Amino acid sequence: MQLNQLTDISQAGLQLAIREIKEEMFDTPQCDYTIAKLLSHCGQFEAAERHIDDMLLKWGASPDVVALTDQAYADMTALSASQTSKTPLHIAQHASSVAQPSAVA
Questions:
Q1: Would you say which domain of life the source belongs to (predicted)?
Q2: How would DSSP label each residue in 4-45?
Q3: CA torsion angle for 66, 71, 76, 79 (degrees, to 10)?
Q4: How confident is the model over 53-83, as pLDDT tens digits?
Q5: How far apart are CA 37 and CA 74, in angstroms?
Q6: Which of 48, 64, 90, 98 supports an S-S bond with 40, CB 3.0-4.6 Å?
């Protein structure tokens, strides 16, 4: 089977999985987090990051949503580090800013 066909099949499978997640979890921040995590597991870090950004815009900055967003970025950083030797700079910067919150006086 040619590489292009395998890629098309993989994309179709990923879209099917995302559709199943949406049907099972409905439209919630946890659903969006799960989809972002799935995209990260598939090595689609840019798509996962866009999904996380959209999640934040869609659900706002409530503590629960911010916690899920921070966890999603941490997951992406860990998965990226395990899949490649280089973590994309913007993900690493966000993860380090979350890990080391600035002191408020």
A1: Bacteria
A2: HHHHHHHHHHHHHHHHHHHHHH-SSHHHHHHHHHHHHHTT-H
A3: 180
A4: 999 999 998 999 999 999 999 999 988 888 7
A5: 10
A6: 48
Give residue 105's pLDDT.
38
Whether domain 3-95 has CATH 1.25.40: the reply is yes
Question: What pLDDT is recorded for position 74?
Answer: 93
Please name which of 70, 44, 66, 41 lies closest in space to residue 56, comparing C-alpha atoms: 66
| Prediction pTM value | 0.71
Q: What are the φ/ψ torsions at residue 102 (nearest 5 degrees)?
A: -75, 150
The domain limits of the chain are 3-95
